[in-house]
Amino acid sequence: MKTKFGYHYIEIVDQIKIEPHYKVAYLAKKIEASEETERNAENSSLQFAGESRDQKSFDANYEKMLKPKGLQKLFATDISSHAYEIQGVGVSRKFIKQVFDADRGDVLQPERVGDNYVVAVVTEVNKPGKISVAMGRRYIEPILVNRKKAAALKKRIGKISTLEAVASAMAQPVQTADSIKFSGRSTNAIAYESKVVGAIFNQANKGKVISEAIEGNRGGVYVVRVDNVSSTVVENADLNSQRSSLEAQGRMTILMGNRLGGNFNFGNQFDPALVLRKAAKIKDYRNRFY
């Protein structure tokens, strides 16, 4: 046999599992709806919108007309007046403008968004200023629920002596987390738990089991034993260039409205840019024209 490397002599000494093989070619072709399909979809959406006068009739007609057909009812929250896309719906600046031109309880006429006809009902309108109690609940309730879950788990764990005792009582395995970095940059899931990482790198906890369960970000708790803490050498480290880089990043995050950036969340009450924005009397009306 001749190849680009020269001539080769091959001896076949054995053959196993001789089976037929096939070459498969994939041909991609766009499937486009016919005019009749388009017309039927548009007529169905017009009929649904025509029979839905408010949120109550909208929900009732969905259960009667659309749910049996397997069509989904989606919920879009916190829509910005300057947005171009609603997640789960698609890109349509025109549709978003129609939403903001409507009043609470209005059922919009069908709008073609992507490959779908969308009929929307406006369920809530938030005016500029302080958020309502109902909206604030969306952000506060998950935090309080997580704290309640963590408190219940801590009570169930009780006094901590060893990891093995806690694992046995909670019917959970003992897991080892290796190569955790203080910066949080790691493939290990625990690296995103800032309270846990902080406790791990506390020199007072080195070589022992931390006496209190640590509350996680998602309602769980962590019982941790710190086996070892070590430092790594950064080769060719230039402290001056790193300092300059961090300063530049800090200035940029301030201008972008996030004082510290990254995964840190210390609030932005001391953000100079935020102070200037609060003092300014500028009203943004770009959403009315674009």
Instruction: Give the C-alpha Rg.
Output: 30 Å
Q: Choose one word for the global shape.
A: extended
Number of extended strands: 8
Structural class: mainly alpha
The biggest sheet amounts to: 2 strands, antiparallel
Helix content: 25-40%
Low-confidence stretches: 258-268
Distance between the termini: 68 Å
% residues in beta strands: 5-15%
Secondary-structure element order, N to C? EEHHEEHEEHHHEEHH
Strand numbers in spatial order across the main sheet: 1-2
State the domain count: 3
Instruction: Please give the count of helices.
Output: 8
Write down the overall mean pLDDT.
84
What secondary-structure arrangement, pairings included, does this model have?
Layout lengths: L1 E2 L2 E2 L27 H17 L3 H12 L18 E2 L3 E2 L1 H9 L9 E3 L2 E3 L14 H25 L5 H8 L23 H7 L13 E2 L5 E2 L16 H17 L16 H8 L11
Antiparallel strand pairs: 1-2, 3-4, 5-6, 7-8
Describe the structure.
By secondary structure, this protein is mainly alpha-helical. It has three domains: 35-118, no CATH class; 134-222, no CATH class; 239-288, no CATH class. The protein contains eight helices and eight strands. It has helices at residues 35-51, 55-66, 93-101, 133-157, 163-170, 194-200, 239-255, 272-279, and strands at residues 2-3, 6-7, 85-86, 90-91, 111-113, 116-118, 214-215, 221-222. The strands form four sheets. A two-stranded antiparallel ribbon has the order 1-2. The longest helix is centred in the middle third of the chain and has 25 residues, at 133-157. Residues 258-268 have low confidence and may be disordered.
